[in-house]
User: Fold these one by one.
Assistant:
Number 1:
Amino acid sequence: MQLSRFHLFLALAAILVLRVTVGYHFFKEGTNKLKYGFDASGFLSSAKGPFADQFKSMLDDHDGKKRLGVTVDQSTDGMGSITVSPELTLALWKDFRDRAAGQYRFGDPELVEQLKKQRAEMAEDIKEARVAGKEDEAIELEQKRRLAEEKIIKIRSQLPRSEEILSDATKELEDWLSQNEAEIVAHYGTEDREMGFDRDGENRADAALYVDSLRYQVDTITSDRKKKLYGWYASIDNIWDAYEGQINALATEDQIKAAGSAAPVVAARQFDQPLSPLKIINHVIPWFDTIVGALLILGLFTRCASLAAAAFLLSVILTQPPWIPGTTPTYLYAIELAALLVLFATCAGRIAGLDFFFAASSKNKNNRAAQPNAETVQPASA
């Protein structure tokens, strides 16, 4: 089929508009995520379908067991024994307290001696200032001397005070777990409620998925369980935050400055690891969107960029497969995925894009390589 110049121009213009529009969307999404932050935990936690377990495994603590100290021991008869213990949390708290004490030099006698020396020197300076009639200077020095005394008292009390803070936080956590242990055990002992109802027998999972009335009931149960779980998360996080803040608050300004960029000390939380897959995803995706968007707008490495973006959108769609009832609609992602495949197939970067120059340069090199060298060509015999 032959196209007129006008129709060819329209086709090329449409592909150009498609490339720039999709590129702008990715670029805008990426810059917004970089500016306001991005967290994929909500999307991953709601994943459904055959790949749900893989997506949820990317979360730091998708079921809350690490945060709440829940352990499920499966016995040979299939019945699980559920225990709630703060043992790991308390070990991490002690480690955090020790790291903070080492970094800030809690109770360090050398710091105390330095401050005592400064205090003695300031006492002499105060006497000299008053003898010289410099009362304002003497008052200022007296204030500095009192601050030095307060720092001495604070440094001497840091180690015993850190023990008290750890003891108080431990008691608060143990009391909270004791008050909520029965509910926590019941919560994790009834996880199979989200898989359907016993009355439906072996087919309960399929019934809960494909029968609308049952699916709504299961969704309600799941929602209520998540609300309860998130309420527990907030309580535990508050205890962690308060403990971490109180330990860091023990340090004096001089100790914080001496610690440099390493301050404040951060507690290692078993449910919030810095190099977890979720953290990597949250860091990479904003830059991925921004770079892909810029490449599509510029028409640079368009085929690679469009294929990478299409693969990313496919992973998003797989978290909510459209063939499974009750999933979040992902048809908009599917539409943009199709557009990216069109850009990949049509080499759209060569249309008013930087890929045009790369293609032209490559073509010229190939043409030169194909031409025979004039010096090596032998004249034909007469």
Note: The mean pLDDT is 86.
Number 2:
Amino acid sequence: MHNFDFVKPSTIAEAVAALSHEGAQALSGGQTLIPTMKQRLAAPATLVSLTGIAEMQGVCLGDGGLHIGAATPHATVAREAKAHYPALAKLAGGIGDPAVRNKGTVGGSLANNDPAACYPSAVLASGATIVTNTRTIAADDYFQGMFTTALHDGEIITSVVFPIPEKAAYVKFDQPASRFALTGVFVAKYAGGVRVAVTGASQDGVFRWHEAEAALSANFSPAAVSGLAMESRHMIADLHGTPAYRANLVKVLTSRAVAAAG
């Protein structure tokens, strides 16, 4: 690991100012950035920690749904979201191990947009809003491919607003060592229809399965997806599974998520 400076601002304004300097990098949970720095694949001159900013912490109900501060650890979401959005709380409680859940944050996960991360599926299936220091971004506009988002240089996520669905569930088939999703499916039913988001499967990162959404909006039951087929052409191929294997997992896990939500 290369030498670096470390600053821990107490306000969003201070963090934005610190990040305006050349070579500065935001640090939230650090579950991806720190291992990358240890391997010398990244060498920021300054780490700007966001974990000391009180206004970026916590879970509460507000306009538009459940508001979660971007610097809120997964373990806190698992505890405090349970009464309002059980499916989201369960997702948070299944990320990594206790150490990861107590250090990793919502904002860090979304800013990194790992193709196998769990949170992107919850955000996309919920039609959530990502709030930054300068604007709000709809979930459908935020995710732009593997490790790619709509965030600008120096822009930081401050909170996420989750509309609370009538029914929802998240089911993942995880890699036992990392507990990242080999494939994960989040299903959320709202008055206006059903949203289905898939993580861990596609080369393009998290995506919505529109065919399943249409079928489930007409009939919210596992049987509704039985006649559907997921295209495997853009699925990930690695030592854990072929594209066809992951495509089949998408269908199987969608059915399970609907059953769990119902």
Note: The longest helix spans residues 243-261.
Number 3:
Amino acid sequence: MRSEPRIDFVVPVYNEADNFEPMVRELYGKVPLDKRLLVVYDRDEDTTLPVARRLQSEFPGIELVRNAHGRGVLNAIRTGIAAATGDVVIVTMADLSDDPSVVPAMVQQIRDGEADVVIGSRYMKGGRQIGGPLLKRTLSRLAGLSLYWTGALRVHDATNAFRAYRREVLQSIEIESTAGFEYSLEVTAKAQAKGYRIAEVPSTWRDRSAGESRFRLMKWLPQYLRWYWYALKNRR
């Protein structure tokens, strides 16, 4: 029997053959907690799948989940959330950008009852963002810090997708986003509006070292603005 509940990582992938094994080795090395990796993919031809299958015998907990909601990163995240059964659900990417060393601290805050959502923050004291397009970095920082300083949200980095959730929080919030990672801002704003406790820990984000990013700034910007204004209108 497990001595503690299991955490579930939701990891959407799209041809991450070069990044997946280093990510798994880093995550398992830095997160000494009982866990599953729900690897959500769109197509059977995805180059990530052979690598993931090879690693399953070495790293228990890797599970392949076919995207059930239609192609795209947002639908992959929806599928992963629906498949999660752990008490804590963590969304992270396979591109080695997120810092798994902060995961135990994120989980501990939730399990200690201090928070319901814990964000890996690039913009609070101690956090860093390394690399990435200048426009994307600038807009993300401006959005996060302006929401914090206006009192709309009580965290510095509301747009980072790397975060831990009490699973019940995700079950209670309808994700209306339709584009991509703007769902992170949506969930943050809705969780605060519902009275959930949101916290953050300093984290380092690095631009991917291999593969192609699926972040589409100009396409998704109107969706980000929708939830930015929602947070401002619903501030307490």
Note: The two ends are 43 Å apart (CA to CA).
